Every structure is written in C-alpha cells, then in structure tokens.
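Hey, I'm writing a tutorial for new members on how sequence and structure tokens pair up, and I'd like a real worked example in the thread rather than a made-up one. If someone can provide the structure for the chain below, I'll link this post from the tutorial.
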Amino acid sequence: MNILLLLMLLPPLAGAALNGVFGRRFSQAAVSLAGCGAAGLSMIFALLSAWTYSRSAGEPAPFVHSYFTWIEAGKLRADYALYYDRLTLVMTVTVTVVAFLIHLYSRGYMEREGGYYRFFSYLNLFLFMMLTLVTAASYPLMFVGWEGVGLCSYLLIGFYFRRKSASDAGKKAFIITRIAMRDSRLESRCFSGRSAP
C-alpha cells in the first residue's frame, strides 16, 4: 500500500513540473499527453489502492505510513505520512476519476488558447495538492495540501490574468480559501474541547 499511495501522488507532481518547466518547448500534443497521462496514471493507482485495501481480510484497519521526517525543530516533528481508510478510498477515487475527465475535456476546450502548457501544469498541480489534502496523516501536511489547493484555485480561476474580471475572481477564490481555513481551525478546536485563539 505504501508504494501504491506514492505512485498515486507522484505522477501529477511530475506532470506539473514537466509541463511547467519544459512545456513552452513542447507541442500541444506532448503537453496534453504529459498532463492527461499523469492524471490517468494517478487514477489507475488510486483504483489499485482501493482494490488492494478492499481485499484486506475482515474489517480493514486504517493504513498509515511515514515516509520521512520533513520538519524537525525542537519538540516539533512532522513526518511526511499518508493515511488511508474507507473515506480516503472514496475521496481519492472520486478526485482522480473526475480530474482525469477534466484533463481530457480540457484538451479540446483550451486548444486555441494561449498558455496551454501552463493550464495543464496548474491542473496537474491541483490534483497533486488535492490528493495530498485527502491522504495527509498530520495537520501540517494537510495544511500544505489545503494551501496548495487554494493556490491552484487562484492560478486556474485567474488563468486569463490579463482580464481584470479573471484576476479579480482569482483573488476572491484565494481569499475564500483563507476564510474557510480559519473556520476549519475554529471547528477543529471546538470539537477537540480547546478554545479558539
């Protein structure tokens, strides 16, 4: 399971990096192949993860695996750890299948637009951040996923940044994610019995 989860997350990150760095030199066919291929691989590994987890004998227990420590400062320690249970199964399959279909649709929708490679880079990065958000085993990693989703929402909604309406809409989306993050922090503190700051 630990390898399958990584293989589910890494293709969109690789696709985002490939199109983001080299996409300007690629043809549209190569850009869409890298972007859609990354989303398709992620979907396949999400389905394989779901199948493997579902085949566990008896009631499958939540799966948690720590890959490495990415923050260690004094008493603070945060691992890059992924969590997988039935809810994560539903979320990862839903996210990857829908994202793959959006990638396929975007091939035609964005065909005559400028910045084709940027759009697919942002889409792949959005998928990676969404998967990070739903599989994170710790609050720091979940925070990274949440902020990444907010950033990608800003980049995608404000894609036509030369148009004032698009750039304003991107800013609104970014602000809304900040408000939602504040509310989720309050909610988590209420449910854990602690007072909000």
